[in-house]
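DM from R.C. (forwarded with permission)

"hey, sorry to bug you on a friday — could you get me a structure for this? deadline for the figure draft is monday and I only need the backbone to look sensible"
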Amino acid sequence: MSAAVRAVAASVALFALVTIAGCTAAQPSDSIPPPPATPLAPSSTPVEADGFWRPVRAPETLASGLEAPWSVVPLDSGGALVSQRDDGAILEASAAGDLRTVGVVPGVVSGGESGLHGLALWSEGDERWLYAYHGAADDNRVVRMPLRGATGSLEVGDPEVVLEGIARNSTHNGGRLAFGPDGMLYVTTGDAQDRDASQDPDALNGKILRVTPEGRPAPGNPFGNAVYSLGHRNVQGIAWTSDGTMWASEFGQNRYDELNRIQPGGNYGWPVVEGTGDDERYIDPVVTWATSDASPSGIAAVGGTVFMAGLRGERLWILDTSGEALAREPVALLEGEQGRLRDVVAAPDGSLRLLTSNTDGRGSPRAGDDVLLRLDIAPEG
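My reply, with the result:
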């Protein structure tokens, strides 16, 4: 086993407090297997082979000096776009790690957890649009901006509002954006400290929303409006495994964080239930964690494997989602090695991109923070 692989394997958490729905308390599995004899060749599309995917070497720093980064969008060039929460800036990180400002989203209101949050890229023909979720003077909203230029000279045009009227507060703002396999835009919102809004199917807060690229309620939505699922406290991560299942990370209150399998029209219980309950009206999480072990934000999916970034937990969780219950115990990596992890995304070359979040006012910044990381992964066996 190489020294790099040993460094990653040594970070596996041996005594994580994890509860899997329908199972007893779980413990993470053992060390990471050595990398394949022939390195995986980069590809133009994410690798989606079945099986359990795990890192094969220590993470590599691609860019440093980021300020409260929140969302990363990998590009085909090997670079990435990164949002910065507090100053509203969108940065282009080149494959060589150079940073330049693509634009600053106008009207961003920051403070507490508010600011510029999720990014998502969408193209139609020759048009490219960059979507952004951000706090504004009176609400949270989603805007989109034309993305122009080539690698190293990208710039955004004037924003147009796609979705507005999402209540904003200093905490619980949600903010993740992702285009699903159906081509619709999914938007996560927090309860903005109005707990009752989460159970109101006519309110936008405490929800996962599903809209067209233009911001209209998507066809087939369960309530005839933008709401796709409800009963959420503060979802900050969504992703789809290769079988089409949608997953979401739920930032809990004082006891339990969650990973949920999302169903259209599903009610996930907040504020009536935190974690697993005994009320058939609400869907139980597939996994719960103590908040000290997770406090999850972004998630990524490759094949049937879900990767979940932990803020307070300061670790990357890896979960095999095969079957109705998890096929194995969750694995915890990088515990304490990089500090708070805000986002994780699958890149076009089959690797992962991770963002740290140590300059967000709740972490302990280290030299060079915050950073954009590359993590190479491969299927087990």
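R.C.: lifesaver. The radius of gyration is 19 Å.
me: no worries. The chain has one domain: 3-379.
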